[in-house]
Amino acid sequence: MSRFSRIVVAFLILLAAAYYWLLVNRGQPALPGRSIDIAALRKASDAMPGEKPTGLEYAIIATRRIPGAALAAGTGLRPISSGVVVWRIVTPRGGIVIDSGLSRNDAASMGFKEYDGRAMALAGRWMEQAELLLFTHEHVDHVGGFLDHQPFQAVAGKAVLSPRMLQGMNALWRENARLLPPPRLAEPVQPVAPGVVLVATPGHTPASQMIYVRLADGREYLFAGDTASLRANYEIPTPRSRLVADWLAPEDRPVAFAWLDALKRLKARHEALVIVPSHDPDWIAATAAKAGFSRLPAPTKTLSVN
After folding, report:
1. Would you say 154 and 128 are in contact if contact means Cβ atoms under 8 Å apart?
2. CB 267 within 8 A of CB 224
3. Which residues have CB under 8 Å from 215's CB, separation 6+?
4. How far apart are CA 187 and CA 189, in angstroms?
5. Backbone angles phi, psi at 187, to 5 degrees
6. CA-to-CA distance for 252 and 230, rounded, in angstroms?
7. How do residues 118-166 score in pLDDT, each as one tens digit?
8. Are 240 and 283 in contact (CB under 8 A)?
9. Helix (H/G/I), strand (E/B), else coil: 25
10. Which residues neighbour 127 within 8 Å (Cβ) at sequence distance 6 or greater?
11. Antiparallel, parallel or unpaired: β 303-304 and 114-115
């Protein structure tokens, strides 16, 4: 073998090793003590008097195509859809909004190629009508629509913020952050409305939390936030790739993986529970009819963010 050939082989080996380490290797969910107690969530969902929610609606604000392995290590480079989704829990008191979308400029800066201004306008109306605003974590694609909403006074006081969530929002340096309400004391399992419970799951970010929803008809949902961006994250389970989790959007990957392992075990024990990933519009579309989701507004051709 010539010297040039040896260099080429060495380069290919190095490239393959880098690909495996950055986009394939899942690691191991070796951290103990991560579990989600469905009995505790059900008990907490009954802790506050009043009528439970009756349904779930969603709006897709922005979408892009990315390699699947970026958000789910080891799933290959085939492009998948990744989306920014706002959810509305339908209640008799105006609804509860989960996450808030983001502005067109923020969508463009994050690489989203399609942006639905109608959907973002609807999310804004949902926030103004809502009784509460909840957030799975403090990244801009989840809180940006809230922080940028005008008039901010119409929505600010509805936000349920833990101390860490407030700290994370302030770190985004948005003008409206100075008007944020004081944080509430954060419990590991915290009921906030009849049938709606916050579950502290730090790992993806310090403020990350899942949101458990139990409807009046008994159907149960767990909004996983970016702990599980895609269905594959908790089904396999597999965390975000090291390229994303260690470099592009740093998180505590071992802890996030431990929560994914807990979600897989939870789903195995409670098959009817619907675990909702945060950025998986294809899964949402395929699951909507069976799970009882309603998409609003009716989808039309979205416009480029540019």
Report:
1. yes
2. no
3. 52, 53, 54, 55, 56, 195, 221, 292
4. 5
5. -105, 155
6. 18
7. 999 999 999 999 999 999 999 999 999 999 999 999 999 999 999 999 9
8. no
9. coil
10. 97, 100, 133, 145, 146, 149, 154, 155, 158
11. antiparallel
Task: Decide if 239 contacts 73 (C-beta within 8 A).
Answer: yes
- How many residues does the structure list for the chain? 306
Please name the residues in contact with 29: beta carbons below 8 A apart, sequence gap of 6 or more: 237, 254, 257, 258, 260, 261
pTM of the model: 0.95
In 140-271, the DSSP E strands lie at 189-193, 196-200, 209-214, 220-223
Q: Pick from 110, 278, 280: which is nearest to 205 by CA?
A: 278
103 neighbors 145 (Cβ within 8 angstroms) = yes
* 3-class DSSP state of 221: strand
Using one digit for the tens of pLDDT, what is the confidence trace for 256-274? 999 999 999 999 999 999 9
